[in-house]
Write a structure and sequence with these properties.
Layout: H1 8-20, H2 24-37, H3 42-54, H4 58-78, H5 98-111, H6 115-128, H7 132-137, H8 149-159
């Protein structure tokens, strides 16, 4: 597949700029193109998912988060000390993006009313970073569960660690 950019770096730069400027449709199109020609472009996997969230394509976003978790897990498993895996938002090789990917996926599930799956996703996120428990208490996607005893216990236990 050819891309309308001279280099893959040009495509990745355009995608990153569209993401930063919140041009979600453009970011999504570019991210979809990039993963086809470079399946190791970890920011593209993340942008394909988050763009779908911002475009309110919730069911599509779930699949994109699954894809991102799969491919980024593969990249991290294959990485060695000499290979740095890039992540969004200034992350580095010491930062595991699966925490936010699981959290965003859980948000989508909560929005869609899939309570048990949402709570399982939140637990997965919190296994990487317990701060996502308190974050869920402030996230509108979890609003339907703000008074749910299991949700309160799940997110409260995170604040006690």
């Amino acid at each position: 597949m050819s891309v309308p950019f001279e280099t893959l770096d040009d495509l990745e730069t355009a995608m990153t700029e569209a993401h930063a400027d919140e041009r979600w449709e453009e970011a999504l199109t570019l991210a979809d193109q990039l993963v086809l020609v470079d399946p190791d472009a970890s920011p593209a996997w993340q942008i394909r998912a988050i763009s779908r969230t911002y475009l309110m394509r919730h069911e599509e976003a779930l699949g994109a988060y699954d894809d991102a978790l799969h491919h980024i897990g593969r990249l991290l498993d294959e990485a060695d000390d000499e290979v740095e895996v890039e992540f969004l938002d200034g992350g580095d090789a010491d930062t595991d993006p699966r925490a936010v990917l699981h959290f965003n996926r859980a948000c989508e599930l909560a929005f869609l009313g899939r309570r048990e799956e949402a709570f399982d996703g939140l637990r997965a996120s919190m296994a990487y970073d317990p701060n996502f428990g308190p974050a869920a208490r402030r996230d509108d996607y979890f609003k339907a569960y703000f008074r749910d005893p299991e949700f309160l216990e799940l997110t409260r236990s995170a604040t006690l660690n």
